[in-house]
Amino acid sequence: MASGATSRSEDEESLAGQKRGSAQASGAIPKRRSSSRFIKRKKFDDELVESSLAKSSSRAKGAGGVEPGRCSGSEPSSSEKKKVSKSVSAPIAPSPVPTPGLAKRMKKSKQPLQVTKDLGRWKPADDLLLINAVLQTNDLTSVHLGVKFSCRFNLREIQERWYALLYDPIISKLACQAMRQLHPEAIAAIQSKVLFSKAEEQLLNKTSQPTLDTFQELLHKHPDVFYPSRTAKALQLHWQLMKQYYLLDDQTVQPLPKGDQVLNFSDAEDMLDDSKLKDVRDEVLEHELTVADRRQKREIRQLEQELHKWQVLVDSITGMSSPDFDSQTLAVLRGRMVRYLMRSREITLGRATKDNQIDVDLALEGPAWKISRKQGVIKLKNNGDFFIANEGRRPIYIDGRPVLGGNKWKLNNNSVVEIASLRFVFLINQDLIALIKAEAAKLAQQ
Predict the structure, then answer these.
(1) 65 with 52: CB under 8 angstroms?
(2) Could you say which DSSP state residue 209 is in?
(3) How far from the centroid of its chain's Cα atoms is residue 40's Cα?
(4) 284/139 Cα distance (integer angstroms)
């Protein structure tokens, strides 16, 4: 039974092998799924036969068709030999159609190796500029010193790139393809930056007082010396540059003096005549400067006088007020919005206008259209008493008592002063007033 089962299985396998061989002969190879994973499963026997038949005859390894290295150190079994011999005996098409996955892998293997070294920094414009400059000067050092590339390359990088363009077929091919795609205007701009060779500069040296026509004649006479893209204007600009740096044959450079004869700045300053440097006096300009100075001083004085008014407004808005009394404040007239400092023995109260400037502008406290321009005067007597005199049309109320126009009244500490519905509290600096009284008593004794 075992031998019968074995022979039956071998017959079935041989029939399957003949069917596969006939299928390959007709050119229809069954599609098999190929995995893109790096680690793949092991192939079975029938898959090994198909893969061997799919390869070209040049890659076939003997009649066995089994890939070398599949079973290292082991001989194929007798069943495998039979299968292979039966499959090979079938007629094989001269050019079998490979599977899509195999064709894709073969296509990838035929592509040239992409060398991307330095392709990111070296642009096609740099390559074209390098080639033109080297062909014109035949000196890589001059190219490194005189040509301005898109990146800052050192001499070694320029040498390596030049040798790669000459001897590396892949980099040379890629660079040529990229340079062919450049725009004609970009190519013209690159060619205009090509360095001048020594032969070109020698021809420019021989010209004296040249014009554009002279340079045009040079281009016609020496087409083999000058670069093809040179123009008469370009030659003229380079000739002017050479003249600026004293590189022409008919120019001489004065040598520096030897020894201690070099003139320094201090010696040159001593040689100057100060009398020749004095300008002529301009009376009109001096008068205008004097008038402008006087006007600016007047504005500064007015701003100083208005400073305390603005300080009152700032204190009322910010809510940050300085102490009521200091060493110079005699008294304070404090309102609901603002407070006025009395720092002199006599101050005037009222409503300020353009023509009338007073010490205490009551309009800062509230509506002052009923207040006279000069409503009253507060004075400090030698004995330390404060008095207020009413000089306006409306009465002034001191602690509820009216003071009519032309009259005066004594002000005490914490007295309430009411002027046209504006109320203020009069506060006296007792310490400073006590000092004033003591000095007045000393003077009276003397």
Answers:
(1) yes
(2) S
(3) 53
(4) 68
